[in-house]
Amino acid sequence: MGLSADGSYKLPPMDAVGSGSVQEKQAAYLVEIIEKVNGLFEGELTDDDQLVYVNGVLKGKLLENQTLVQQAASNSKEQFANSPDPSNALMHAIMNALEAHQVMSAQALGSSQVRAGLKDILLGRRNSMRPCGRRRRRRSVSCEVWQNGASEADHSNDNARHSRALSL
Asked: Comparing C-alpha atoms, which of 32, 94, 35, 87 is closest to residue 60?
């Protein structure tokens, strides 16, 4: 074990922190999504705007559709992609997301109580607005604000369990 004369043991320093980790794989996946999404949308949109919309909002809405999730789990990615159901579900997800965001934004703009609640959530106990993790490439993929303080990896793992075929 290599104890010193006084009976203590010195641990060797960690030299491969995070190498091959889930976070790096998640970061690579998010970079891949950003590369695919770039060019689809026009206007003053950041990578974060596009990433949250595609990988958060739309994917979340699609995962609410239990029929679609079941089909994704029961078929190969190719079979699932060739079905008309994902295209129809995507159109409904876009419409539902637009409606939900309009309703929430209107309420937030019209109510100081809603804005105060949002501020409390965003700056609450975990201070989710503070930069966290090491910056990789253009953004920190570990600093997303998630309901109940769950990490992006937690939600990604949940999404993967529900549907392996709903990825880009």
From this structure: 94
Cβ–Cβ under 8 Å, residues 9 and 1 = yes
Q: Which of 56, 76, 68, 74 is nearest to 92 (CA)?
A: 68
pTM of this prediction? 0.61
Give the C-alpha distances (Å, rounded to integers) separating 131 from 30, 31, 57, 126: 18, 19, 22, 11
What single-letter amino acid sits at 135? R
User: Tens place of pLDDT for every residue, the chain, 168 residues?
Assistant: 566 666 666 666 656 555 557 788 888 888 888 888 888 988 999 989 998 999 899 999 999 999 999 999 999 999 999 999 999 999 999 999 999 999 999 999 999 999 999 999 999 866 656 655 444 444 433 344 333 344 444 444 444 444 444 554
